[in-house]
Amino acid sequence: MRTPIIAGNWKMFKTVEEAVAFIDEVKGKAEVEGVESVICAPYTNLPALVEAVKGTSLKVGAQNLHWEDNGAFTGEISGVMLKSLGVHYVIIGHSERRAYFADTDETVNKKVHASFKHGLLPIVCVGESLEEREAGKTKDVCRVQTEAALQGLSAEQAAQTVVAYEPIWAIGTGKTSTADDANEVIGYIRERISVQFGSDVAGKVRIQYGGSVKPNNIREFMQQPDIDGALVGGASLEPASYIQLVEGA
Ligand code: PEP
């Protein structure tokens, strides 16, 4: 009943030419009925990507936004700007942004509200560090981050939010959570969304797993009942690998 969603997070990779060449290669292939396929690219690629995916079912996302519409915020990009480009999704609160660019639970929440204000759909990242995992705090960390991110949304907005559970120690490291473990944490996140917004909303929210997902392990994750897709960094950069990820969903 929930449409699986594969989102590629290109991070700070690819020139405009490389981005367009990627779409030419995946067109018609990374498009599988019943699976949503989204490329989240650096800002500089977004106009060309929006043009390149026209006539396909592929969607384009950004990797961050500022919560204000405009103002004296040198180097920032707002929701109103992304919307005017034709972007559909925006990743919010990726652990790299929390670690290196000062995203906090509070700013993540403001960004989530800003994305809905402009008709963008947020992919909200939550997840624990290795230290927190070893201290048995995984669920607590995910609960606090998810509740804060969704605070103040309407039920309709909450139901449209995509949450990405990304254990930080699994991002770009080649280590993954086991599919069972990831499903358990994701099931818990869903339970907490049910407490916050009711079971109808919790049943609709799509929750992805992220952290070293590759073509050879995507199926294990997708077989789990609570996992609705994947947010993928490294393995989303090569067309052949991205196509296999979408097929694996
Ligand atoms: C990510 O960037 O969100 C991610 C999960 O990266 P990777 O797939 O490379 O671990």
TrEMBL record:
<feature type="binding site">
    <location>
        <begin position="9"/>
        <end position="11"/>
    </location>
    <ligand>
        <name>substrate</name>
    </ligand>
</feature>
<comment type="pathway">
    <text>Carbohydrate biosynthesis; gluconeogenesis.</text>
</comment>
<keyword id="KW-0963">Cytoplasm</keyword>
<dbReference type="GO" id="GO:0004807">
    <property type="term" value="F:triose-phosphate isomerase activity"/>
</dbReference>
<comment type="pathway">
    <text>Carbohydrate degradation; glycolysis; D-glyceraldehyde 3-phosphate from glycerone phosphate: step 1/1.</text>
</comment>
<dbReference type="GO" id="GO:0005829">
    <property type="term" value="C:cytosol"/>
</dbReference>
<feature type="active site" description="Electrophile">
    <location>
        <position position="94"/>
    </location>
</feature>
<feature type="binding site">
    <location>
        <position position="212"/>
    </location>
    <ligand>
        <name>substrate</name>
    </ligand>
</feature>
<dbReference type="GO" id="GO:0046166">
    <property type="term" value="P:glyceraldehyde-3-phosphate biosynthetic process"/>
</dbReference>
<dbReference type="Pfam" id="PF00121">
    <property type="entry name" value="TIM"/>
</dbReference>
<dbReference type="InterPro" id="IPR020861">
    <property type="entry name" value="Triosephosphate_isomerase_AS"/>
</dbReference>
<comment type="subunit">
    <text>Homodimer.</text>
</comment>
<dbReference type="GO" id="GO:0019563">
    <property type="term" value="P:glycerol catabolic process"/>
</dbReference>
<dbReference type="InterPro" id="IPR022896">
    <property type="entry name" value="TrioseP_Isoase_bac/euk"/>
</dbReference>
<feature type="active site" description="Proton acceptor">
    <location>
        <position position="166"/>
    </location>
</feature>
<dbReference type="InterPro" id="IPR035990">
    <property type="entry name" value="TIM_sf"/>
</dbReference>
<comment type="function">
    <text>Involved in the gluconeogenesis. Catalyzes stereospecifically the conversion of dihydroxyacetone phosphate (DHAP) to D-glyceraldehyde-3-phosphate (G3P).</text>
</comment>
<keyword id="KW-0413">Isomerase</keyword>
<feature type="binding site">
    <location>
        <begin position="233"/>
        <end position="234"/>
    </location>
    <ligand>
        <name>substrate</name>
    </ligand>
</feature>
<dbReference type="GO" id="GO:0006096">
    <property type="term" value="P:glycolytic process"/>
</dbReference>
<dbReference type="GO" id="GO:0006094">
    <property type="term" value="P:gluconeogenesis"/>
</dbReference>
<keyword id="KW-0312">Gluconeogenesis</keyword>
<dbReference type="InterPro" id="IPR000652">
    <property type="entry name" value="Triosephosphate_isomerase"/>
</dbReference>
<feature type="binding site">
    <location>
        <position position="172"/>
    </location>
    <ligand>
        <name>substrate</name>
    </ligand>
</feature>
<comment type="similarity">
    <text>Belongs to the triosephosphate isomerase family.</text>
</comment>
<dbReference type="InterPro" id="IPR013785">
    <property type="entry name" value="Aldolase_TIM"/>
</dbReference>
<protein>
    <recommendedName>
        <fullName>Triosephosphate isomerase</fullName>
        <ecNumber>5.3.1.1</ecNumber>
    </recommendedName>
</protein>
<keyword id="KW-0324">Glycolysis</keyword>
